[in-house]
Every structure is written in C-alpha cells, then in structure tokens.
C-alpha cells in the first residue's frame, strides 16, 4: 500500500552557488557514505550528485508528510548510488519500501520518492 509520494525540482545552479557560498553545505546535506561517493566525482557531475541528493531528500520528506525540519533532517536520510548508478535509500525513518528516482537536465534535477508500506 502506498503511504506517500513526494516530488521535487531543484535548480542545479542554486546548489552550485550554495557550495561556493557555504563550504559546510556539503557536510550539512550529505551523510558520510554519500560524501564518499561525492568525493569520487568532480566538476559538474559532483554538483549534479549533490543537487540530486538535496532534491531526493526533499522528495522523501514530502512523501513522509513532514517536510525537512525538526521531524526529518538531511542526515536522517541516506541515498547512495548502486553499482548501476540508481539511487538506493539505505537509511530513512520509514520501515517500508522506498522507491527513488532522479533525472537531470542541464539546468534542473527532478526527483520522486514513493513510500510503500510493508504487507502484513
């Protein structure tokens, strides 16, 4: 049974500006495992990865019904790429199945999260 659906669109340039203005931005958004993947990337791909994680976590919080804030923070959700490059939620405050999707253009990143409750 579907518990929630969340979508988000983020401008990649906005994330690039945040990286430049606030050096701690990456640490605030990414978990250690996500930072390990991010650290292996460079240039535009690294910015796209960070924008994607920001947007995925925003989508998760919307599907969860709380938004990012005191109930769910960026460090409460971990999403890493599997060996094929697909985003996999490895940690989140949800006990069911989490479906994640991310897509980029040169300007935007769009993400969707679907929360599916476990069958009893």
UniProtKB/TrEMBL annotation:
The keyword Transmembrane does not apply. It catalyses: apo-[ACP] + CoA = holo-[ACP] + adenosine 3',5'-bisphosphate + H(+). InterPro entries: 4-PPantetheinyl_Trfase_dom, 4-PPantetheinyl_Trfase_dom_sf, ACPS, Ppantetheine-prot_Trfase_dom. Pfam families: ACPS (PF01648). GO terms for biological process: fatty acid biosynthetic process. Its cofactor is Mg(2+). SUPFAM superfamilies: 4'-phosphopantetheinyl transferase (SSF56214). Residues 4-100 form the 4'-phosphopantetheinyl transferase domain. It is an enzyme of class 2 (transferase). Transfers the 4'-phosphopantetheine moiety from coenzyme A to a Ser of acyl-carrier-protein. This is Holo-[acyl-carrier-protein] synthase. It comes from Limosilactobacillus fastidiosus. The gene is acpS.
């Amino acid at each position: 049974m579907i518990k929630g659906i969340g979508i988000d669109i983020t401008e990649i340039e906005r994330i690039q500006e945040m990286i430049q203005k606030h050096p701690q931005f990456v640490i605030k958004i990414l978990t250690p495992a996500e930072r390990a993947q991010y650290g292996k990337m460079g240039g535009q791909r690294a910015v796209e990865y960070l924008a994607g994680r920001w947007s995925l976590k925003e989508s998760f919080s919307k599907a969860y019904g709380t938004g990012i804030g005191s109930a769910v923070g960026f460090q409460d959700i971990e999403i890493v790429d599997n060996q094929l490059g697909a985003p996999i939620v490895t940690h989140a405050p949800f006990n069911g199945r989490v479906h994640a999707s991310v897509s980029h253009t040169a300007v935007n990143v769009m993400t969707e999260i679907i929360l599916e409750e476990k069958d009893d």
